[in-house]
Design a protein that fits this description.
The chain is an alpha+beta fold. It is 47% helix and 12% strand. The chain has a domain at 24-32 and 64-110 and 153-196.
Length: 196
């Protein structure tokens, strides 16, 4: 009976479009293909990379507006970064994505854990028969144990969910960076336009 059920299950699995076992092994025992980011061809160097008149050095462009050496721009940018609600909301989304990722990663571990213990001090009754044969009238009884409920990640569902949560976290960080760059660019370009 069990052999027949196994043969029927395997036949249905193979006929139903399941991936070959070799693909399952290559994907790290996870269902579905591994994500491969789309590739875009880019040049290794820019067109004028070999021009000897250029100074080749790496600049820190994190505070690119400081080149203008204007304290008013510095003050505007500091105020905007501290008080911009869109930027703050983007930061909260990063925290939310981190918390969601931690919850998803927790699925790899036991979902329910319980430990218990008990101790009782008991005594034999004086009225019981043959109590004089007992070495000790008082004795201790100890009980201890634990329960554990764990869904194993056999098909890779939890590991794929972690990959998705990592990607969501990365997208929230990119959204924060985009909001920051847009904010700074708008402030500086508007300030320069007004000054011009």
């Amino acid at each position: 009976m069990y052999r027949l059920c196994f043969v029927v299950f395997m036949t249905m699995s193979l006929a139903g479009g399941c991936a070959a076992p070799s693909k399952y092994f290559r994907s790290g025992f996870k269902v579905g293909p591994n994500y491969i980011p789309p590739s875009s061809r880019t040049a290794e160097d820019w067109i004028d990379a070999n021009d000897i008149s250029l100074i080749k050095r790496s600049e820190d462009l994190a505070q690119w507006w400081s080149v203008l050496e204007d304290p008013q721009i510095e003050q505007l940018i500091n105020t905007a970064v501290r008080q911009n609600l869109t930027l703050r909301e983007a930061g909260y989304r990063i925290l939310q994505a981190r918390a969601a990722r931690a919850m998803v990663a927790g699925s790899l571990f036991p979902q329910e854990q319980e430990a218990f213990g008990a101790q009782a001090r008991l005594s034999a009754s004086k009225a019981a028969a043959n109590t004089e044969l007992l070495d000790k009238r008082f004795f201790d009884q100890w009980d201890a144990g634990f329960n554990l409920s764990w869904e194993l990640d056999f098909w890779g569902r939890f590991r794929r969910a972690i990959e998705a949560a990592d990607a969501d976290l990365d997208s929230q960080v990119a959204a924060y960076d985009q909001a920051m760059i847009t904010l700074l660019a708008d402030i500086v370009s508007t300030y320069v336009e007004i000054r011009t």
